[in-house]
Amino acid sequence: xxxxxxxxxxxxxxxxxxxxxxxxxxxxxxxxxxxxxxxxxxxxxxxxxxxxxxxxxxxxxxxxxxxxxxxxxxxxxxxxxxxxxxxxxxxxxxxxxxxxxxxxxxxxxxxxxxxxxxxxxxxxxxx
Length: 127
What we know:
It is built from six helices and six strands, in the order αββαβαβαβαβα. The radius of gyration is 14 Å and the shape is globular. It has helices at about 1-15, 35-45, 55-60, 75-80, 100-110, 120-125; strands at about 20, 30-35, 50, 70, 90-95, 115-120. Helices cover about 40% and strands about 20% of the residues. With about 130 residues, the chain is an alpha/beta fold. It has a single domain, classed as Oxidized Rhodanese, domain 1, CATH 3.40.250. β1 (about 20) and β2 form a beta hairpin.
């Protein structure tokens, strides 16, 4: 019960803290959330696709359960994201939060409509 209450409080706080980041090229936006908000999203949306954009060396150190791995630094990144279902909801993360912003922008540019970036990346998640 205490865990449920804590999640509810985090959700209420998170609603006020959620921001949107604008993609200047397309005018579309993606959401930017912290780890606590990402945890709530994962718990509440079983259809959420978690996208890990780190390198294979980084993902060997651990990943978020059920994450889809597409290396942002790989030259085939755009081709690989084009294979994803644009109508789904995505939570994107990298090691510390920089590449996931770039990946989120590329996804918005490619026509994805529900993209969320996890601030702090896997470093923040694993703490």
